[in-house]
Amino acid sequence: MKTAFLFPGQGAQIVGMGADIARQFDTAARIFEKANDILGFDLSRICFEGPDRRLNETAIAQPAIFTTSAAILEVLKTNPPADRIKADVTAGLSLGEYTALYAAEVLNFKDTLVLCAERGRAMQQAADAAEGGMVSIIGLDDQQVKQLCNEAAQGQLLNAVNFNCPGQIVLSGAKPACARAQKMAEKFGALKAVPLEVAGAFHTEMMAPAADALEKAMADCKIADPSDTAIIANINAQYYQTGEKIADALTKQLTCPIFWQKCMEKLLADGVEKFYEIGPGRVLTGLMKRISRKTKVVNVSSLQAVNELLNSVD
After folding, report:
1. In whole angstroms, what is the distance from residue 18 CA to residue 41 CA?
2. Going by C-beta distance under 8 Å and a sequence separation of 6 or more, which residues neighbour residue 80?
3. DSSP letter, residue 98
4. pTM tops 0.90, yes or no
5. Which of 94, 136, 172, 301 is catalytic?
6. Could you read off the pLDDT of 51-98 as tens digits, one per residue?
7. Residue 278 in contact with residue 7, Cβ under 8 Å?
8. Which helix (H) or strand (E) holds 3?
9. Which of 69, 203, 301, 302 is catalytic?
10. pLDDT-based confidence at residue 198 (cuts at 50, 70, 90)
């Protein structure tokens, strides 16, 4: 039976994440302390105590989600019997792909954290320089969403960028175009259209300056070739073959669409039967219910979930 570890992306953050786990497990506390030392500020306090406004800043949320996910992963790796659970493949949604690379040991902790922090900072900076937004469209297929984009764009940037699960596609682009898409969605048969609380038009050309900054940051990091654990890429739903391909895809990821549904369908087709979502929130667990109703995801986002897993593994 093949096993996959899944890691959440931006939007999964919530004040208090990781706090009770760090209190109970020294291994988790040490991960947060390590992150504080590397970043030079108290990231753990923002994770544990907030405020919301600070945690939700792109430049903070990204390293915070990675660190929380890494802390939970460390608990599972260092406590029997969960330490016997081994991932054949890892995957992460957008930002979560960095945690997936760390879990597969192609990036070390410091480099992953530094890249997440730089990615968040660069994306925030690119967003501040352009008026962009995102809106989630519920209940339309790919073709209907394409027609909606064509009509709502009116000469402005508007692309479908997150293909998360059947009936959930996220649009990204100029703020006025996103607003028009939100108003027009019902005409095309959408159940609803929900503006996302994000800083800008992620996964579009508006993030080109962030992609340039990230490419420069990656030049200082060692990205190994995948070995024992496979990693699937957001941008094409294919397995990474080399460290060089990983660096290229992570840069492209900022300005290209994310194909999460195709990634999960590929894993299911390749015989993955056991899935664990490791990190804050339940986003990926919810998406899998829409992708494959019969597939169960073990969600490991809380102290209760960690303890249940530690007490239940055969």
Report:
1. 17
2. 310
3. H
4. yes
5. 94
6. 999 999 999 999 999 999 999 999 999 999 989 999 999 999 999 999
7. yes
8. strand 2-7
9. 203
10. confident
